[in-house]
Specification:
The protein has about 90 residues and is α+β, with helices and mostly antiparallel strands. The protein contains 2 helices and 5 strands; from the N terminus they run ββααβββ. Strand 1 and strand 2 form a beta hairpin.
Length: about 90
């Protein structure tokens, strides 16, 4: 498990916050019992998989990102996340 004190950077605004701040704000946004049960903490590596449809809210700008789109400051976890926020989609 990843420590709550790890520093994450938002891909939208570039601001840094702790992993715990991201988790707390996102969990507070869960309105129903089903949403709370489906919540996956950023402490779990499963939250960063490409197929995971979980979104997390930045404590600074309040924009939402997938787990694999946040940026770790610790080089130990650089491979888990850091995917681009914007994706190129072929409309053909």
């Amino acid at each position: 498990m990843i420590e709550k004190s790890e520093i994450l950077e938002c891909g939208w605004c570039g601001a840094t916050s702790t992993l715990e701040e991201w988790d707390v704000l996102t969990f507070e946004g869960c309105r129903s019992r089903e949403m709370k049960r489906a919540f996956t903490s950023l402490q779990r590596e499963k939250a960063y998989s490409k197929g995971n449809a979980s979104y997390y809210q930045c404590p600074k700008c309040e924009n939402w990102s997938r787990g694999n789109q946040v940026i770790f400051r610790n080089p130990k976890y650089k491979k888990l996340a850091g995917q681009p926020i914007l994706e190129v989609v072929d409309l053909k």
